[in-house]
Amino acid sequence: MITDQASALHLSPVVSAMTESATLKMAQRCREMRAAGHDIVDLSLGEPDQDPPAFAIEAAQAAIAAGKWNKYPPVMGFPDVRAAIAAKFKRDNGLDYTPEQVMVSTGAKQAIMNVILALVGPGDEVVIPAPFWVSYAEQVRFTGASPVLVHSTLEEDYKPPVARIAAAITPRTRLLIFSSPANPSGSVLSQAELEELAAVVLRHPGLMVISDEIYEHIVFQGAHRSIGAIPGMLDRTVTVNGISKAFALTGWRIGYIGGPKWVVQAANKVQGQFTSGANGIAQRVAKACVEADPALMQGLAHVYRRRRDLVLEGLKAVPGWRCNKPEGAFYVLPDVAASFTDRIRNSANLSMYLLEQAGVSLVEGDSFGAPHTVRISYATSDALLSEAVQRIAKAITALHAN
Ligand code: PMP
Ligand code: GLU
Q1: Segment 80-121, tens digit of pLDDT
Q2: What does the alpha-carbon distance between residue 328 and residue 38 come to, in Å, rounded to a whole number?
Q3: Interval between CA 172 and ligand 1 midpoint (Å)
Q4: Fewest C-beta atoms under 10 Å: which of 48, 59, 68, 248?
């Protein structure tokens, strides 16, 4: 526990035990190094490099000019925004939520936290297929529940076989959390894989699912599928999405959920005590986004697919690294165990080495439950990606030469 030795003051045990978000920590480190004059290519943060669509900015300007969105919004979100999100869930995902089953929050991150707080507490277990997005496990721990990680390998395309997930479920398991397309691996669950998973969930009457679909528009072959659309699963699933990735609006901090009414009502109670609801102007922007023609999003997958291929090609020159072939999102998760030495013993050491020696910022895999890996976010320009992989190849070659 962190204490102030000079006095009786101390932090709470829960926050003392909490680890800092590795993604945000690396992004901050990168900002600091740049401010100190270092030339860093930042592949750490999962943040689109493009500008947001013009209609989103216009919606924000119109909302401010209208002068009527300045007061506290309803805790759950404006009714017309929730109705627009319900229509989006139906249109894009085949999910039948009423507006009362939809809630708007301050980013998908807070939306997920609300649901976790609503559903689990001390003594409960939450099954999380690994590699997983950094915040799931820490958010679960915060409630006093235990994350139960179900590991998978690169050979398994970082998707634990469903039998392994089923074997991790105990009478204490209340929740399963996963993302598809996945952060940090880029893996995508097929309809058949989702159906297998759904069959396991439906065998356990006390088990709920959080399906994080924030990368739904970034799929390179086939189509994104929602587990909640599988017969029997709508009542067992909370579907999470947001405007950060698809619309490059990370800074506006809007995410949302659709789910069973009893869960959404409980999440609303949590939100009412923690934030009073999401920023009103940003909610007006979110409405414009979810009402936009989904065809506008088609170009996204093309851009990221090209960048994925560029990174995978470049990484072939890195001795010993083995790569997965992501089918979605904008991350590659190479297995870098071949680069571990007496001095560079783990992925945190390796990402520090690459930051300091190559000027490339990545995120260590430990924080995603994948200790032999580093995560590369390729949500940046082709030129910077080419530069970054060349720098990585040079630095790793030098490492092996010493
Ligand atoms: N889920 C996943 C899988 C993510 O990668 C992220 C990062 N953006 C989030 C949730 C949180 O997104 P937001 O910016 O909406 O909080
Ligand atoms: N989700 C992004 C990432 O994984 C942004 C950082 C964060 O929200 O933790 O890099």
Answers
A1: 999 999 999 999 999 999 999 999 999 999 999 999 999 999
A2: 32
A3: 27
A4: 68
Q: Which residues line ligand 2 (CB under 6 A)?
A: 21, 23-24, 45-47, 109, 134-135, 183
| Residues 238 and 103 sit within 8 Å (Cβ to Cβ) | no
List of long-range contacts for 338-347, beta carbons under 8 Å, 24+ apart: 339/396, 339/399, 339/400, 341/399, 344/399, 346/371, 347/371, 347/372, 347/373, 347/374
- Confirm or reject: Cβ of 108 under 6 Å from ligand 1: yes
Q: Are residues 160 and 199 in the same domain?
A: yes
Atom of ligand 1 nearest to the CA of 254: 15
Residue type (1 letter), 56: A
Residue 245 CA, closest ligand 1 atom number: 8
* CATH (domain of 324): 3.90.1150.10
Q: Which domain holds residue 258?
A: 54-294
Dihedral sign from CA coordinates of 343, 28, 17, 347? negative
CB 104 within 8 A of CB 283: yes
Residue pLDDT, tens place only, 63-78: 999 999 999 999 999 9
What percent of the chain is predicted at pLDDT more than 90? 91
Atom 5 of ligand 1, residue of closest alpha carbon? 183
Is it the case that residue 4 has pLDDT exceeding 80?
no
Predicted confidence (pLDDT) at residue 1 exceeds the cutoff of 60: no
**Predicted pLDDT at 8:** 87
Residues in the chain: 402
